[in-house]
C-alpha cells in the first residue's frame, strides 16, 4: 500500500506541476491584437469572440473602425479624404482610420465588403486593394485578411447584388456569388479568408439543422407576443419591436449566428479546433451548439487544404 501511495503522490505531483506550467504559459502569452475594418457584420462576428478566446486561454485585444452598412468604397473614401486634408475624413466617431490603425501594433487586420454588395465583384475594386496598400503602409507587419460575410436568411425579402442592379434570387445564389467574389479578390491580393459565409451556408443547407420557415404562423395577423418557430436560424428573423409591431431582420446574425462566426474566427486566429470550445452563447440548445462547433471546424479544415 505504501508503494502505491508513493506512486500516486508522484503522479499527482506531476499533474499539478504540468497544470501549473500550462497556466504559466497561458498567462505569459502575448495578447493577439486584432483590428476590424467593417460594419455591423464585423460586430456580429466578434460578439462572442472575446469569451471564446478567453475560455481557450488566449488573450485578445480588439480595435475597431466600423460604420453600420459601410462598404469598402466608403472606408476607402474616408481615407482618401483624410490623406488630402487631415481635418476631414474622420468617419469613425471623429477619428480617421489612420489614427485608429496607428494606435500600437496590430497583429491581424480584417476587411470585408458590405453584405449587399458582397456578390458583385466589381464593387471591390479598386477599394479593397487601396485599403490593403494603406494598411500595409501603416502596419507593415500585420496579417491582412478578408472576413467572408454570410448570405441572408432563406425567407429574406431581398438578397444581395450580384451584378450591378441584378440581385441574387435566393440564399444559395447570394452565397455562391459572394463566395466567388471574396475568393477572387483575396487571391488577387494574396490574402486569406475567414470563411464565415461558408459556415452559415453549411448549416442553412443541412437537411436536419437548416432553418425552415414556419408555414403555420399567420404573418398577416400576428398576435403579440407570439412569434413563428425559428429553430436553428442563424439570422435574427422575426421579433417584436418596442412598439409591439412585428419586425423582421433576415440579414444580421442572431446569437447562434454570432456564436458560429465567433467559432470560425477563433479557429482561424489561434489555429485551435472549435470543437474543443466549451463556452456556449446564451440560449443555444446544446445539440445545436455541438453542430455549430462541428461546422466551424469543418469549414476551417476545408479552407486550409
What's the layout of helices and strands?
Blueprint: H1 2-28, E1 32-38, H2 40-45, H3 49-55, E2 60-66, H4 72-84, H5 97-101, E3 108-111, H6 127-138, E4 143-147, E5 161-163, E6 166-167, H7 171-189, E7 192-194, H8 196-204, E8 235-240, E9 246-253, H9 255-270, H10 286-303
Helix pairs in contact: 4-6, 8-10, 9-10
Domain DUF4886: 35-199
Protein name: DUF4886 domain-containing protein
Pfam family, one: DUF4886
Radius of gyration: 22 Å
N- to C-terminal distance: 53 Å
Order the strands across the largest sheet as they lie in space. 2-1-3-4-7
Rounded mean pLDDT is 93
Total beta-strand segments: 9
Q: Report low-confidence residues grouped into runs of 5 or more.
A: 8-28
Protein name: DUF4886 domain-containing protein
Pfam family, one: DUF4886
InterPro entries: DUF4886, SGNH_hydro_sf
Commentary on this structure:
By secondary structure, the chain is of the alpha/beta class. The protein has a single domain (30-303), classed as Rossmann fold (3-Layer(aba) Sandwich), CATH 3.40.50. Helix content is 43%, strand content 15%. The chain has ten helices and nine strands. It has helices at residues 2-28, 40-45, 49-55, 72-84, 97-101, 127-138, 171-189, 196-204, 255-270, 286-303, and strands at 32-38, 60-66, 108-111, 143-147, 161-163, 166-167, 192-194, 235-240, 246-253. The strands form three sheets. It has a five-stranded parallel beta sheet, sandwiched between helices. It has a two-stranded antiparallel sheet with strand order 5-6. A two-stranded antiparallel sheet has the order 8-9. Strand 3, helix 6 (127-138) and strand 4 form a beta-alpha-beta unit. The longest helix is centred in the N-terminal third of the chain and has 27 residues, at 2-28. Mean pLDDT is 93; it is low at 8-28.
